Amino acid sequence: MGANSLKLPTSADVTVHLRVDTIQLLASLASSASGLFIPNLASELGADNTVIGIIVAVYSAVAFVASYVFARLSDVHGSRILIKLGLGVCTATFFLQVFTDPHVFPPLLANLGLLTLTRVLTGFSIGIFPAALTVYAYDRKEGLGRFSSFAALGNAVGSFIAGVIAVYYGVFILSSACFLLAFALSLRVKQVSAAGVKMPFLPRRILRKNWHIYTSFLLRHTGANCIWVIYPLYIASLGGDKFWIGVIYTANLGTQFIVMLLLDRYKGSLLISMGLVISTVTFILFALAQNFMWLVPMQLLLAVSWATLYIGSLTYLITNNAEKATSSGILTSVISLSTVLGSLIGGILSQLFGYTATMYIGAIFAATGFLVYRSHQNNNETMLTEG
After folding, report:
1. CB atoms within 10 A of CB 120
2. Which of 47, 87, 200, 377 is deepest in the core (most CB within 10 A)?
3. How far apart are CA 232 and CA 56, in angstroms?
């Protein structure tokens, strides 16, 4: 074996990986902690389920647009500047949410209007950097499963800490502080891939090539967000307090971290199918829960469903498209769009028919996503056989 056939990682390589992983962890911790109790806060400020759905949808609608726009800019101008810009802006916008806590500030300030405005600003800022950070990690030869696992770990830690703090303004201060620390780490990020990829504003070729990934993902995650928009309230209706809301979310997200570490070795097509099927089963089981403790083991299935679907989709897109930031950024936009649609649908359905019916609707969406994906796969296999 030649002397250069095995290249061991240098201390600089390890430092870069740790820095990228830590940025991912901190940013995910901040965003998950910040968003966990938004339905509860909105409810305390006088919102019904429909209005809660609108507030969540507005956040995601802005993130939907920002995710695509800044992903495209990352392919054109490079990832480094957008990582720094996004984390810096998030530090400011997530702190502004402090003023929406009605237990600290008077109704003249802490009201639904201000809460909606701050969620618009945080939604915009959270869309700036994820695609750029993902491509930066990929170009640094970091496995996407490993990289994404730190997002899951951050979400788990954020949900747990938010449940322990259980005070709105304290959670928002924590979120801003985490973004500030991530921004400080990003100051040493260096450009890896060359900028200057030519990109039309509307990448029709990418959308045509990957429509089955985006469509099946959109359907599953729309169903999921029908549930998530009222999930903290559903847990509370089954007897869980804010601490247990945090624990239940942590069980899901902590399991995601472990599962994602194991997925880099598997084919994306297998992972996507698994994710869609397990999602359908999990959402049906949610509807059968008799008290909040039933939801704890169900979170393990939920974690597997999301980890397999997300890593499978992300791996497929980045390895099969030259425009890595744009193709993965569109996936991020799809996540945001599904949150818009799911939040509106879930808010209205839960208002009209209750929480249980909403869980079944989520399962129908996920099952439809699986049928769309398998139909495309079957068509491809038929074409290859006939060819």
Report:
1. 17
2. 87
3. 13
Answer for the pair 191, 16: CB distance below 8 angstroms, yes or no.
no
Both tokens of 341, joined, read 């649609």
pTM exceeds cut of 0.85: no
Span of 186-195, 199-208, 377-386 with lowest mean pLDDT: 377-386
Contact predicate 345/335, CB 8 Å: no
Give the C-alpha separation, 141 to 278, whole Å.
Answer: 30
Structure tokens at 125: 């800022």
pLDDT over threshold 90, residue 202 = no
Nearest to 185 by CA among 11, 30, 20: 20
Confidence of residue 16 (pLDDT cuts 50, 70, 90): low
- Integer angstrom CA distances of residue 134 from 61, 75, 93, 238, 284: 21, 12, 22, 38, 32
Q: Which fold has domain 13-386?
A: Growth Hormone; Chain: A; (1.20.1250)
